[in-house]
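Subject: Re: docking follow-up (zinc ion)

Dear J.,

Thanks for your patience while I sorted out the input files. As discussed at Tuesday's group meeting, I've set up the holo structure prediction with zinc ion included as the bound ligand rather than trying to dock it afterwards. The sequence and the ligand SMILES I used are pasted below, so you can double-check that they match what you have on your end before we go further.
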Amino acid sequence: MTPVEALERVLHCLDRAHTGGFKTKAFARALDVVRAMPEAELVERAENGSLTRVDGIGDATAAIVTDALRGEMPPYLEKLERTTQITLSPEAAPYRAALRGDVHLHSTWSDGGASTRRMAETARALGHEYIVLTDHSARLTIAHGLDRGRLLAQLDELAGLNRELSPFRVLTGMEVDILEDGSLDLDDDLLAALDFVVASVHSKLRMEAKAMTRRMVAAASSPHVDALGHCTGRLIGKRPQSSFDADAVFAACAANCTAVEINSRPERLDPPRELLDLALTHDCYLTIASDAHATGQLEWQPHGCERAVERGVPIEAIVNTWSAEALLDWAGS
Ligand SMILES: [Zn+2]
Ligand SMILES: [Zn+2]
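The structure tokens for the complex came back this morning:
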């Protein structure tokens, strides 16, 4: 394990534990510094104990780098590996085992913390056969959303990545903003070209229920949309659910083969229980998606699996338990 790999793994563990805050930021900064440092200087500084004199490298990072260079497992990382494991109940295990891909995740192209390659390689190591890369659309400027030109550039990158990682597949997609009138924040030709499109509300979350219902029904009814992302927009303890007629929205999802996403982020767990129950009464298709913004967060699908088993979601209705081929067939029809 190289020093960079060791620090990447530290960040992975901190991210899956949803640690956030100062510690994660400090290690992310340290990783940038170590990545940029010539190997010879890194080795020399580790040997003469001068790593901590470099801006951005503290005692913890210095110890990890030194251990990694010696070919030893850093004790700090070894402890993190043990203490940040995501638990999975025996009841939810069949759901997690059935998942063959992840269909909502972000990279450094928008507001994610890892490259498309690292997200793909991590997902593969978790046992997946495919991912759908769903970076944000242009309207979400705060998340560095992709406009037409940048999306086309990303599609080029993914073509190369697919040639390298095959048979693992990186499917093309986007988390497209649902604009206030229910239209989508991407041109139709690109929406049609993408393999899998998640549509989400990220603005005007408090709009009046009738207008919000019209907005969401319009998006769910689009032939280009394959999944409705984090439908209520809630952030547990921070932001309440949006108000809308969930019966009408889920009916539109069912009628148009738009899956309802079970968002696995701990602060979202969206839809809430009562709405997931309602989606089931409409026989909606579902996804269990991580909405990962970092490699460690790709390990969050078990949270969605726990919710799915608790509410009795039929496994076969979860579209990312299907093969990539079956998913593409379904999304294209
Ligand atoms: Zn979102
Ligand atoms: Zn997202």
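A couple of observations from a first look. Residues 148-165 form the longest helix (18 residues). The domain at 93-332 is CATH 3.20.20.140 (TIM Barrel).

Let me know if you'd like me to rerun anything.

Best regards,
T.
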